[in-house]
Structure formats: structure tokens, C-alpha cells
Specification:
Length: about 250
Amino acid sequence: MNKILGILTTLCLILSAQEQIYANFDVVAKHSAELAIKSFGIVKKVNVDVSDMVKKGDVLVELENESEKIALEAAKNDLELANLALKHAKDILERFKKVKSVTSTQAYEDAEFEFKRASLAVQKAKIAIKNANEMLENKLLKAPFDGTISKRSIEVGEGVGGVAQRLIGIFSYPEVKLVISYDEKFKDVVKVGSEFKYKLDGSNEEMVGAIALIHPKIDTKTRKIYAEVYAQGLMPGLFGEGYITVK
């Protein structure tokens, strides 16, 4: 009996050492962005519409890119020719090395020069391929994270003028965050990592998260402090309330 009383007393002490702080919250996307494309040109394809779900790396918009494809093929051909020239120059240099003692210094230096020039031509062709691939990549607008398309401001055939022109709006999903608010008097007791138990409005299901970020200022109008709790699969726009557990 005494043992049971001891356990109950310990539990009461633990509970009394903890404080429950009321907080309400709104569910918002963890990430959101207005996307632009690096390049200029005419829109060839728009692969998404509002409310579409996308994965990170999905191509959302494509610009006309025929000239870039031609430039890439030309660069690949140049690399092939440069490699052939390098092989030929290397073979000649190797032959001169074998007879260096009986050949003129000028002839050997000329062969060595041609080999170095051919090596540089190969490097130049590789750089041209890299640049051509980058130009092609810049004709694509890709999703920066998993999410849902919130806005589409472009159509096939329209012109695009670079990064100043926003084409697609996107917000992250299923990654979301709860933006919670609580009274300023608790500014010194709520910490990153504090447990947050909460329910969505109209739901009896209790969920648990942890404070991931505390905003470094107090709202002067509401005298509230804002913090964030990360969650998965909740629809942005929902709201609710809960309690932060602090010690």
C-alpha cells in the first residue's frame, strides 16, 4: 500500500511540475513559392494546372528549345572530333619520343605543342557541352519540392521574359506547419522541443507535435508570440487549438 501511495505521490509531483499553456493555431504550407524560369522564350508546354499534385523535380513548364538542342549536338560533334585529333596528336608525339635523339628539337616541340593544343580543344568541347546542357536545363521550370499547384499564370505560345515573370505558384504538401500563438507571459518557458498536443476544429482526435521554431518577436497588436510545429497531411487553412507542455 505504501508503495502504491509512493508511486501516486511521485506522479502527482511530476504532473505538478509541468504546465499546460493554451495555444491556438492555423495550418499553413511549410513552403510556398512563386516560380520563375531563368531563360527567355516561347512556352512550348505547360504540364500542370491549379490543384495538381507534383513531386520535386517534376517539369512544370517547358520553353521552345530547338536551337539549344542543335547547339548541344554540335558541341558533342566537336568533342568527338577533338578526341580524334587528340589521339592523332598523341600518337605522333609518342613516335617522336622514341626517336627524340635523332630528330630535330623543333620537330619534337611542334609535336608536343600540337598535343597540348588538342588536349585544350577537348576541354573546350567538354565545356561547350556543359554550357549547352545548362541552356537546355534553363528552358525547363521544375518543382522545387513536393506540393500542390496554387496558381498558373502562363499559357502555351506566350512569351516568357526571365526571372522577373512569375509563372507558377506552389505550396508544399504533405509537409505543413501549424503556426501557433500563445500569451507573451510564457516567452521564457516555451522552448524549441516543447510538446504540443492539439486538436483540429471539429475533431476529437488528439495529435502530438513539438515546437520546431519560435519567432523572435512579440506581436505588438495581439501581445502574442508565434511558434511553428511541423506536421504531415493536414490541409492548409484548417485551424484548431491545443496545449504546450512545459516544465
